[in-house]
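Page 37, top half.
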Amino acid sequence: MSSSGAAAASPKRIVSLDAARAIAVALMVFMDHPTIARALPTFLRHPEWHGFRLPDAVFPAFIFVAGISLAYSMSRKKDVDFKAATLVFLRRIAVLMLIGLVISFVKYGLPLRYLGVLQRIGLALLLAWPFTRLRTRWVLLGAAGYLLIHAVVLLFVGAPGVVPGDFAVREATISGYVDTLVLGVQHTYMQSGFDPEGILGTLSAAAQALLGLALGKWLIRNPRNTRALLFAAIVGVGMALLGWFLAGVLGMPLNKPLWTPTYALVSSGIFTFVFVLMYWVADTKGHERLFTWLVPLGRNALLVFVASNLAVAIARRLGYFPGIGSRLASVIGSELLATLILQGGELALWFLVAGWLHRRKLYWKL
């Protein structure tokens, strides 16, 4: 935890960036801890396997925002020696992944699940880092390269005994095979032989970090250029349409657990459009007040994500959660309303915590 006492000397913060980070972590907290998951409407639940719904847009948005943040962070450190900056960056990634392992231990126990949300973010940023001081065109080529490599492996390399491009059974995909081979089946999610934050999917996640980095570089170069923002928004729409088109042409479904390149394109395209709109409203047109209420949560997004996951995992291990949703539902007569109240209450609590920390200028940064 650090205090931002030097805030007055720092460049003006991008309100839309803090707000976007806040929305991503708020949705992650709200959607990841349902007490009665079956009661939620379909659009608030992940598909069983293939498909794209609202919850599927949240995690990639967080990675995309991390890429945008990386662009602004590096723009403030352009005079810093790249080797020195790399060492600091590697230390931060190591700490981030260590925190992820701690969360895995608390949630799942032993044998330890090696990968998870924070590990995926860390590895995606690690693969994006070499491009941070290159021109935008090279950043985009890097993103295209990661997506292409992942697509080729998924479509043309099959697990032993499985036809390449067959995505019917998650454990039998090439992604599940690689996870089992490299990590060991006992160190995958629920010891299933497949990890939804697995190794191959990190390639497309890294591409999303690079697409965020490219957008950040574009905004830094064109901070108040409405035409440039319109161009970026159109590119975002085109990217989403391209992902849907390729899903039909290539037979590569939109699939979050596999983190398919088509899924990465669609989610990145949607978030490019949404973020550019937020940036135009808040940071170009000056309507910051529409988003400032989100800033406290956005500035402590990592703290809220880690603390909320640990709190829920510990409460479940201590036996506090079983039956709480059902008991509330029996009182108010609705399972849906009961789980929404409990999820909303948890989110409101973390908004209050983030607001309290913000008033004291306390922010947790790696």
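Page 37, bottom half:
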Amino acid sequence: MTAAVPDRRGTVALLLASSTGGVGQHVRSLARGLTAAGTSVLVCGPAATQEQFDFTGAGARFLPVEIPASPTPADARAVTALRRALADEEVDVLHAHGLRAGLVAVLARPAAPLVVSWHNAVLAGGLRGAVSRVVERVVARGARVALGASADLVERATALGATDARLAPVAAPALPAPRRRRAAVRAEFGVAPDQPLILSVGRLHPQKRYDVLIDAAARWRTRKPAPVVVIAGSGPAYLPLAARISAARAPVTLLGHRTDVGDLLAGADLALVTSDWEARQLFAQEAMRAGVPLVATGVGGLPELVGDAAVLVPPGDVDAVDAAVRDLLDDGTGRAELGRRGAARAATWPTEADTLAQLAALYAELAPDTAGPGAPGADAPSTGRR
């Protein structure tokens, strides 16, 4: 299904913290779609996010607001920088993406209505986890509308005091068509014609539990033929993961940041997600759209996303990952059928355009007096609590 985007005038400010993956891609997608519909878009975030995602190339203006991944005393400077950015604009709606950006936005006390998207769950324990849970409560109570990328995040925001919490699934931006043939992609990694290529894509972060993938892959070294496993992504866990691969002699290669995920999927036989938690993980969506059979952990929003079109395993369970992958590698017919089911399931998901239309309607609902021709006005139906 594809929905039309209301054509509206006025400025929407999008705020994000440090990001190298899905949140940055999502903000760029919104910036591109909103500007195409006639909305002035201001993106605020760390300068590094502009370098990676090129928001100005998507039609937005960009102002640096340095919000690091973890709370620090520098947050006070971020609050001041955001206030200055908003003081020079007539902003209709401020939309913060993630709890870190949401906290800075709440503390800045914007005059415009504040929307905060909850993209991730708090998984940390100890002092860091306690601080994060305080941040959750502040953000839940300080936002006009809380948007959860999965149903469990909506429930969490509501439980912490959000007065208006809604489901807002984030669709993965469409990947460009592969530029290389399957054989060329596989040749890059030295994959023989009869060897399986297993792919995972994501930020190298403890939440992704690539340690589980590596430990399972070490067991596949003795298979005939042994699969080749590649992980595309960058992040703070690179060195520990590289050391683990070496110690386990696992057939795993860390590729670093890649911009050719469509090509990688064209060469892959199996996609793997081993995270402790995900909402609607972008790589899971990309793999199923491409018809690549998926093994993923049954956490967060993934069971609702994939239905019976992927193999779900418990989080943190090396034995379960090992068994699921072996079963699929030993069953070419079943693997092909799973890939077909995945592509069929993906065709039912909200599209990038649907995501954009839902948010554009919400912005018009919150700032109806500035809506342009064709946008929902004050009397338009609310998108409602979901």
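Margin note: Residues 130 and 230 are 35 Å apart (CA to CA).
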